[in-house]
Design goal:
Layout (H helix, E strand, L loop, with lengths): L4 E8 L2 E7 L6 H11 L6 H10 L3 E8 L4 H15 L18 E3 L5 E3 L15 H12 L4 H8 L3 H8 L5 H4 L9 E2 L2 E2 L4 H12 L4 H8 L5 H6 L5 H10 L2
Antiparallel strand pairs: 1-2, 1-3, 4-5, 6-7
Helix pairs in contact: 5-6
């Protein structure tokens, strides 16, 4: 079943923030926002300052669908930011809806950099906060590191570091429903299509290291696939299909 995706707004003190949610029926992003706001650790300092002042918010679903793709959802978010003017007169940090540079303006109009450098506020970050949460959603859908890397123009190993919580550690703390599943010796991240790619690479003479690097697998996994010690169910399915 496809998850219901959508666009939402959070209104505080008469101004709004427009966001997108890959599981809007569960209010996934709202929960993540509130978790950070209540800890006074939100990466959007404008939103955090407003919450600290007013201590209340209004949440509204602007659009939802189980057919829209993540790419289309990103474009739709831009349209809502423009339509509702939440960049000039709200809490969105850019017209595109992705994170800004962490510039804070106090009540006297003085500018300074935000002290927090998590996620998109970190100049070394390759992804925005919204993209991080999208990737977590893709992990939960069973997408491989290689598939995600192609979608976001990343290296497979960087996606693997995110998957194992070696990157975006502060944002991972806001994710409550992610579990790295194992089943019959399988590690989440290699679905049947990824397994077929590994088999094709084996047939083409690729080394275990090449397979691991391409598919974002941990060291030793290539050898275990080669010797059929992993993904036994996939091996059985593959053999049935190729009789």
């Amino acid at each position: 079943m496809c998850s219901i995706k959508g666009i939402y707004s959070i209104s505080i003190g008469g101004k709004i923030y427009v966001g997108k949610d890959a599981q809007i029926d569960k209010k996934k992003r709202l929960k993540e926002h509130l978790n950070l706001l209540k800890k006074n650790e939100h990466y959007n300092t404008y939103l955090q300052n407003a919450y600290n002042k007013h201590k209340e918010y209004k949440y509204c679903v602007l659009y939802k669908s189980d057919e829209i793709t993540l790419e289309e959802l990103s474009e739709l978010k831009k349209e809502y930011i423009n339509k509702l003017d939440s960049y000039n007169n709200g809490y969105n940090l850019t017209l595109g809806g992705e994170g800004g540079l962490g510039i804070v303006v106090d009540e006297q109009g003085r500018e300074s950099r935000s002290k927090r450098t998590i996620g998109e506020l970190n100049p070394q970050s390759k992804l925005s906060n919204e993209q991080f949460y999208e990737i977590v959603e893709l992990f939960m859908q069973g997408k491989t590191n290689s598939e995600i890397a192609k979608m976001y123009n990343l290296h497979d190993r960087y996606v693997s570091l995110i998957r194992h919580k070696k990157r975006f550690k502060k944002l991972w703390e806001t994710v409550e429903d992610y579990k790295e599943e194992t089943s019959n010796g399988q590690r989440r991240g290699l679905d049947y299509n990824g397994f077929l790619k590994a088999v094709e690479m084996l047939k083409n003479g690729c080394t275990n290291a090449e397979i691991e690097r391409t598919l974002g697998l941990s060291s030793g996994t290539g050898s275990r696939i080669r010797h059929k010690k992993l993904y036994k169910r996939f091996w059985n399915q593959y053999q049935e299909e190729n009789k």
